[in-house]
């Protein structure tokens, strides 16, 4: 038997991000409102039941390969999934086509990882929504991975493992600009921890105000701007180009500007030199689209 399925792995934007505490092990307690957006990677999973047990993984283009393939989150997701669900026969082949930049704060690696879990759940007829083992696998692989199992617009808390859907919709368009420099989450959180703690309440204020643009913001932004000053300049340029709000994306170097109309977003998008920056003009993506798995064969 041969089964091939595909799905999209969408990027995310932290509309709000607040650090509300630190665990003894150094992990940070967060409150955040996250939204999947239309910038995406593509993931295909193939299962050949007659073959000996094996997991194969490929990334396209090769320029995105920054570690041994067995160290990639997609491979680890397939490996962990098979361990938990007792899959020990057949060949699993994961193919990943990348567009989301790395070290950008857009969650590309976590989204790819969640996509593999969704694909394998579909192939082996495991209910992503009701089987608690699926969420456990996701949480063991990264704090953002549980969010990406469904995507859409969700509130995140704890260290990322607690997610709840929000009924609101964001009426706007996202322009994402990233300089060539990148930042790891560890770098940004380490810098944040070095600085005097400043409490932010973007998430709670956004919930009170009904997710108005003016309430969005990122409590890690100052740390990120210190480490990569270009990001601060990008924020200024997005605001000058007409963005209603602009902020650092997560714990990377992408900066998001939100515009109320497509025309305004497109005009701003073309102001940035594609030779010096990664650029993307996106729309919001909600649950039903973010979870979709399709048959190929």
Task: Chart the SSEs and their pairings.
Elements lengths: L1 E21 L5 E21 L5 E7 L12 H13 L5 E7 L10 H16 L8 H10 L3 H4 L4 E6 L3 E4 L7 E7 L5 H10 L7 H8 L7 E2 L2 H7 L1 H12 L4 E4 L6 E5 L2 H8 L7 E6 L1 E2 L1 H4 L2 E3 L2
Parallel strand pairs: 1-8, 3-4
Antiparallel strand pairs: 1-2, 1-13, 2-4, 2-5, 2-12, 5-6, 7-10, 7-11, 9-10
- The number of helical segments is 10
- Helix % is 25-40%
Structural class: alpha+beta
The radius of gyration computed from the alpha-carbon positions, rounded to a whole number of angstroms, is 19 Å
**CA-based shape:** globular
β-strand number = 13
**What is the string of SSEs from the N terminus onward?**
EEEHEHHHEEEHHEHHEEHEEHE
- Mean pLDDT, nearest integer? 93
**Spans with pLDDT under 50 lasting ≥5 residues?**
none
First-to-last CA distance: 10 Å
> Quick one: biggest sheet?
9 strands, mixed
Content of β-strand: 25-35%
Task: Please give a structural write-up.
- 31% of the residues lie in helices and 32% in strands.
- With 297 residues, it is α+β, with helices and mostly antiparallel strands.
- The strands form two sheets. Strands 1, 2, 3, 4, 5, 6, 8, 12 and 13 form a nine-stranded mixed beta sheet that branches.
- β9 (245-248) and β10 form a beta hairpin.
- α1 (73-85) packs parallel to α2 and α1 (73-85) packs antiparallel against α3 (132-141).
- The model has no long low-confidence stretch (mean pLDDT 93).
């Amino acid at each position: 038997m041969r089964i091939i399925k595909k799905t999209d792995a969408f990027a995310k934007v932290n509309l709000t991000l607040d650090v509300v505490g630190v665990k003894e092990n150094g992990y940070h307690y967060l409150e955040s409102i996250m939204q999947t957006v239309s910038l995406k990677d593509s993931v295909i999973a193939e299962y050949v039941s007659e073959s000996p047990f094996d997991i194969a993984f490929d990334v396209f283009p090769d320029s995105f390969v920054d570690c041994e393939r067995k160290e990639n989150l997609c491979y680890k997701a397939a490996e962990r999934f098979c361990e938990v669900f007792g899959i020990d026969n057949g060949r699993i082949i994961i193919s990943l086509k990348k567009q989301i930049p790395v070290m950008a704060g857009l969650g590309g690696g976590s989204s790819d990882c969640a996509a593999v879990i969704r694909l394998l759940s579909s192939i082996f007829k495991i209910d992503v929504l009701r089987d608690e083992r699926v969420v456990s696998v996701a949480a063991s692989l990264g704090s953002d991975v549980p969010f990406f199992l469904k995507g859409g617009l969700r509130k995140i808390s704890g260290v990322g493992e607690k997610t709840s859907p929000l009924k609101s919709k964001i009426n706007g368009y996202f322009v994402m600009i990233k300089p060539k420099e990148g930042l790891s989450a560890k770098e940004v959180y380490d810098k944040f921890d070095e600085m005097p703690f400043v409490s932010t309440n973007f998430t709670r204020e956004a919930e009170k105000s009904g997710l108005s643009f003016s309430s969005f913001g990122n409590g890690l932004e100052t740390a990120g701007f210190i480490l990569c000053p270009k990001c601060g300049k990008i924020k200024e340029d997005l605001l000058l180009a007409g963005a209603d709000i602009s902020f650092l994306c997560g714990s990377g170097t992408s900066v998001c500007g939100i515009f109320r109309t497509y025309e305004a977003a497109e005009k701003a998008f073309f102001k940035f030199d594609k030779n010096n920056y990664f650029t993307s003009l996106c729309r919001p993506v909600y649950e039903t689209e973010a979870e979709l798995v399709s048959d190929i064969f």
